[in-house]
Specification:
This protein has about 300 residues and is of the alpha/beta class. The chain has helices at about 5-20, 20-30, 30-45, 60-90, 100-120, 170-175, 205-210, 225-230, 240-245, 275-290, and strands spanning about 50-55, 55-60, 95-100, 125-130, 145, 155-170, 190-195, 215-220, 235-240, 250-255, 260-270. It is rod-shaped.
Length: about 300
């Protein structure tokens, strides 16, 4: 006797349960000739006749009944294993590396990450809050928040929220200087800005449209450092409204004149959209935006 193939056993059980070749074929989605051929193949491997064929239908032989008992137990074990594996797959666990623009990661994600861990204690989030492009295809990250909608391709892209940037200074700085009459007057004041050579995202290159010709007294690749310098009284800076409006040291100026609008998009590989840990982080980010909707 040769070892039977499980797929042949599955078809054999379908025939016995259905009572005929036609019923079994309809149930498992094969044509009746294929089912007949697979039963014959199984009998050849077993070396014994397994079914009686008659106009009334199909009935198992003594050998067929004995084999069916073992095949049923195999089927039950496979079903149980599938249930366990499916349950394991639905558990949210493992590591997700999330790349975000710095302001989004520092001011929104990091303060709320405890919410994620309370809900999914077996999930580990690796946050990369950087003002540079990352490549999902090179596996630099599992997911990313980006500033522009990517072209259609192998990624899922979801618009998270639109946000605003404005001109800010500290209360201390404003108290010791003349108020700005217009944007042109900014040229006579210190400006906090990015290091131009290190701006990797085109969406961050907007200084000229706000304050062309202004000199930068302090530059940093970190928006958090820029906000700290402005809050410390150094001068003016273009900051994220959702972060700066809540800083009691800061005040927005020329709000009717100076405003830059951008958008946050969440992207992840299309083949990962059903992975529980990816879905969990995507839902967390969506909920985070809803919780902070008033900031935008």
């Amino acid at each position: 006797m040769q070892e039977p193939d499980w797929d042949d056993l599955r078809i054999f059980l379908a025939v016995l349960r259905g009572g005929s070749i036609i019923a079994a074929a309809r149930y498992i989605g094969l044509d009746h000739s294929t089912v007949t051929r697979r039963i014959t193949k199984l009998e050849e491997r077993i070396g014994q006749q397994l079914v009686h064929r008659s106009p009334a239908g199909i009935a198992p032989t003594e050998a067929g009944s004995l084999l069916a008992q073992h095949a049923e137990r195999i089927a039950e074990e496979i079903a149980a294993a599938r249930t366990l594996l499916d349950a394991r797959e639905e558990q949210v666990s493992g590591t997700v590396r999330l790349a975000t623009p710095e302001a989004f990661g520092l001011f929104l994600v990091a303060p709320a990450v405890a919410q994620l861990y309370r809900r999914y204690p077996n999930l580990q989030l690796e946050l990369m809050p950087e003002s540079r492009n990352v490549s999902l295809s090179r596996r630099e990250a599992d997911m990313a928040v980006v500033l522009t909608q990517p072209p259609r391709g192998q990624v899922v892209a979801r618009r998270l929220v639109d946000y605003r940037l404005g001109l800010y200074a500290s209360h201390d700085y404003l108290a010791r200087t003349e108020p700005l009459a217009d944007i042109a007057a900014l040229r006579g004041h210190p400006l906090v800005w990015y290091i131009d050579e290190m701006i990797d995202l085109p969406e961050l290159r907007f200084l000229d449209q706000i304050a062309g010709g202004s000199s930068s007294l302090f530059r940093s690749s970190s928006i958090a450092a820029q906000q700290a310098a402005v809050a410390g009284g150094l001068g003016y800076g273009v900051l994220h409204a959702f972060a700066a409006d809540g800083d009691p040291r800061l005040r927005r100026v020329l709000a009717d004149t100076v405003e830059v609008k951008r958008s946050y998009w969440l992207i992840f590989p299309r083949q990962a959209q059903r992975v529980p840990r990816i879905r969990a982080v995507a839902e967390f980010l969506g909920g985070l935006i809803q919780q902070n909707r008033a900031l935008f």
